[in-house]
Write a structure and sequence with these properties.
The protein has one domain (4-178): Rossmann fold. Helix content is 33%, strand content 32%. The protein is built from six helices and seven strands; from the N terminus they run αβαβαββαβααββ. It has a seven-stranded mixed beta sheet, with helices on both faces. α2 links the parallel β1 and β2. α4 packs parallel to α6.
């Protein structure tokens, strides 16, 4: 069963991924193992995935327009997409997230939309890191959101809690329009 924040994100994705829009979903994990976003939105969808094994799985599962690639160095031309969806991809450990945000802005058409969910560093996280050793997966929310605002105007921003590995961690979702 989907958690409420997942349903909210899917609703937002559905509202901005309308018929006639060209949509890029970053990674295929959700489609293979979790919340299938691409199968539940309108528009012409493309997916990029850094893991070669997952690309093969996605193609075998019948997903269309799946390409092997890195969101920090997109193989797409400028102004190609109306919408980019990032569901806990760069928020999972890309230390060079600035490169990914720059690429998202580059490949989006003028006034294109970005919908992104990302983890935030919290006091609870700092405590659980002593045991889990997962600190590199998180980054400073203030710094990250500053980079988001550099390229995108905020349309919607909300907080939620996620139970990961029996730890309650905090995350945020951001919907923004390319400046």
């Amino acid at each position: 069963m989907k958690e409420n924040w997942q349903k909210d994100f899917l609703k937002i994705a559905q509202s901005i991924c309308t018929k006639g829009k060209k949509v890029l979903k970053v990674d295929v994990w959700n489609e293979l193992y979790g919340l299938p976003i691409v199968g539940n939105i309108a528009g012409q969808t493309y997916q990029i995935e850094i893991d070669e094994k997952r690309v093969r799985q996605a193609i075998k599962a019948g997903l269309c327009n799946v390409m092997l690639g890195d969101c920090r160095r997109m193989p797409y031309p400028e102004n190609m997409f109306d919408v980019v969806l990032d569901f806990l991809t760069i928020g999972r450990g890309y230390k060079e997230y600035q490169l990914a945000l720059f690429e998202y802005a580059r490949i989006l058409k003028p006034r294109g939309m970005l919908a992104i969910v990302y983890w935030t560093a919290t006091e609870e996280y700092e405590q659980c890191d002593k045991f889990g050793g997962i600190k590199q997966m998180y980054f400073c929310r203030v710094e990250f959101e500053g980079e988001l605002r550099r390229y995108f105007e905020i349309q919607k921003l909300w907080n939620f809690a996620v139970n990961e590995k029996n730890r309650l961690l905090k995350a945020r979702a951001f919907i923004g329009r390319k400046r």
